[in-house]
Amino acid sequence: GLARLYFAFENETPLAGFMLILFGNYCSYAFAGNINNSVGAGNFLHWEIITLLNKQKFAKYFLGQVAAANVETDNVKFTDGISQFKRRFGTLEVMGSSEKYVFHPLKNKIWKLLLKLFLKK
């Protein structure tokens, strides 16, 4: 009961799928996948989810991170695509933060070294 999967189909073809994480009366959009389509499957699925969560008395539906306004980046898909998609739902944007806790500093240093060695470009 802590996660839900939702899908939008056209005939037998899946066009969009979302994974939501639940915590009490809060719901968080965690992951999505879409097949490029012209029927608006992603928008439709979000709207249906928002309607359902509202009926089920969820207090908040978190859509996740968006790009800050006027930020130049190479990730056009995120800034011009995903962020604008989320904003079109009339969302309230709030500043977020994150914290990192390293429980094993030596293991963390070894891990970072291994990443550098094996992920060299």
Account of the protein in words:
With 121 residues, the protein is α+β, with helices and mostly antiparallel strands. It is 34% helix and 26% strand. It has three helices and four strands. A four-stranded mixed beta sheet has the order 1-2-3-4, covered by helices on one side. A hairpin with a 2-residue loop joins β2 (13-23) and β3. The relative contact order is 0.11. The mean pLDDT is 86.
Query: Could you list the spans in which at least 5 consecutive residues all have pLDDT below 50?
Result: none
Strand order of the largest sheet: 1-2-3-4
| Helix-strand topology string | EEEHEHH
Helical fraction: 25-40%
Mean pLDDT: 86
DSSP, total strands: 4
By oligomeric state, this entry counts as single chain
Biggest sheet overview: 4 strands, mixed
**Tally of helical runs:** 3
Which outline best applies?
A: globular
Q: Write down the Rg.
A: 18 Å
- Quickly give the structural class: alpha+beta
Cα distance spanning the termini: 41 Å
Q: Quote the beta fraction.
A: 25-35%
Fold blueprint:
Blueprint: E1 3-10, E2 13-23, E3 26-34, H1 41-55, E4 60-62, H2 76-87, H3 105-118
Task: Offer a quick outline of the entry.
The protein is built from 3 helices and 4 strands. With 121 residues, it is an alpha+beta fold.
Features:
single chain; 121 residues; alpha+beta; four-stranded mixed sheet
